[in-house]
Amino acid sequence: MMLEQLLQETARQHRHLCPRQVLGVRMGLMAGKTFQASFPQSDKRYVIICETDGCFTDGLSMVTNCTVGHRTLRIEDYGKIAATVIDTETERALRFSPGKSIRKLAQEYAPPGSTKWQGYLLGYQQMSEEELFVVQPVKLMTSIRSIVSMPGRKAMCVQCGEEIMNDRHIMNNGYSYCKPCFSGGYYEPIAIAGEALAPMQLSM
Ligand SMILES: [Zn+2]
Ligand SMILES: [Zn+2]
Q1: Looking at per-residue confidence, does 6 or 95 come out higher?
Q2: ipTM of the complex as predicted
Q3: Ligand nearest to the CA of 121
């Protein structure tokens, strides 16, 4: 698909077209060329670790077909328009991020009288990939094998009794734990009026 069609498609999904979607689409296209990958992929060869959620991520996901559902898109939320694309066959990993002056450069592509936002929207469509993005080879701190892990592998947390998939459990003294029980998670149960909190099955 050409850039214009891709942008129409992402705009349709989003009910709007915005500069960040354009960046996501263009980053996906550049990654496809750099890796000589046939995006949108129909298998799970490429995995993307994206450093934000939102419009940018949707554009990137649409072009590459790396999705949360396929387990080929992971969010490491640093609040940045940046992403690392990993070839799981060769373990080559490249991080794509915007060039430092793309905001300024984009304005040069906009007709006089445009707002800055319009400048970004138009500029990001017309700038060259080299103007838009910096490509940095990187080494993953967690291997791609353990990121992808073992789909289908299951364990039971001895503390909360919930099932843990994809080899995400933690073994301690021969017992398996989920991450929140072992070292804290993003939530803590609160009592519902009139009900006691579920007792812990085993104290650590
Ligand atoms: Zn948007
Ligand atoms: Zn647990």
Answers
A1: 95
A2: 0.85
A3: 1
Is the preceding peptide bond at 189 cis, omega within 30 degrees of 0?
Answer: no
Task: Output the CA 169–ligand 1 centroid distance in Å.
Answer: 36
How does residue 26 score in pLDDT terms, banded at 50, 70 and 90? very high
Q: Is the pLDDT of residue 28 over 60?
A: yes
Give the number of whichever ligand sits closest to the CA of residue 58. Answer: 1
Residue 198 binned pLDDT confidence (cut-offs 50, 70, 90): low
Query: What is the 54 CA–ligand 2 centroid distance (Å)?
Result: 30
| Separation in Å, CA 102 to CA 11, 48, 134, 140 | 22, 23, 11, 27
Domains, the chain, ranges and CATH? 3-147 (3.30.1330.130), 150-204 (no CATH)
Give the Å distance between the CA of 201 and the centre of ligand 1.
Answer: 45
